[in-house]
Amino acid sequence: MALIFVKAPTRERLLDSMQSKDRQTTMTEPLGLQAILIGAMSGAGIVMFGACYALFFALGRLNRSRMYELAGLAGYALLAVCCYGLVRSLELEGFWIAVVAVMLIGYFVAPRAIWHLCVGTHGEATEPVEPPLNTRLAP
To answer: Do residues 85 and 46 touch, judged by C-beta distance below 8 A?
Structure first.
C-alpha cells in the first residue's frame, strides 16, 4: 500500500492567492441575507400568483364571469410585481432579465393557449352531461 502525501497550503499562500491582482474575473459584492430572503419570497410569489392567474382565468372562462377574469388579471399584476422584486433583490442583469421577461410572457400566454387547446379538443358543452344511471344517488 502506497501512501501519498500532499503538502497543504499555508495560510499565507491562501491569502496571497485570494488577493492576487492578476485574476481575470471580478466579483461584485456578495448578496446579503435580506436580499436572498426577498428573492426567495419573490420566487414563491411568482409561483403562487401564476397559479392564481391560471385558476381565475379558467374559472372566468368556465363561468363566463368577468369578475373571475379581473381577479386573474390582478393575480398576473402581482406576479409581475414579484418578478420585479426578484430582479431588484438578486441584482439580475442582461441575460437573466431576458429570462424573467420570457417567463412573464409565458405565464400570460400559457393559460390562454391551454384553454384554446382544451376547447379545441373537447368542445364547449352546451348542456350539463347526465351521469350514467348506475352512479346516481338514490333520493
So the answer is: no
The dihedral over CA atoms of 37, 41, 42, 48, expressed in degrees to the nearest 10, equals: 170
What is the C-alpha to C-alpha distance for residues 95 and 3, in angstroms, rounded to an integer? Answer: 48
Residue 101 CB neighbours (<10 A): 12
Q: Which three cell numbers stand for residue 105?
A: 410572457
Helix (H, G, I), strand (E, B) or coil at 29: coil
- pTM for this prediction: 0.66
pLDDT top residue among 5 and 50? 50
Element (H, E) at 43: helix 33-63
Question: By the 8 A CB rule, do 82 and 107 touch?
Answer: no
Instruction: Give the position of cell 352512479.
Output: 135
Q: Who's near 82: CB < 8 A, 6+ residues apart? A: 42, 43, 45, 46, 49
Instruction: Show the CA angle centred on residue 87, arms to residues 85 and 90, nearest 5°.
Output: 100
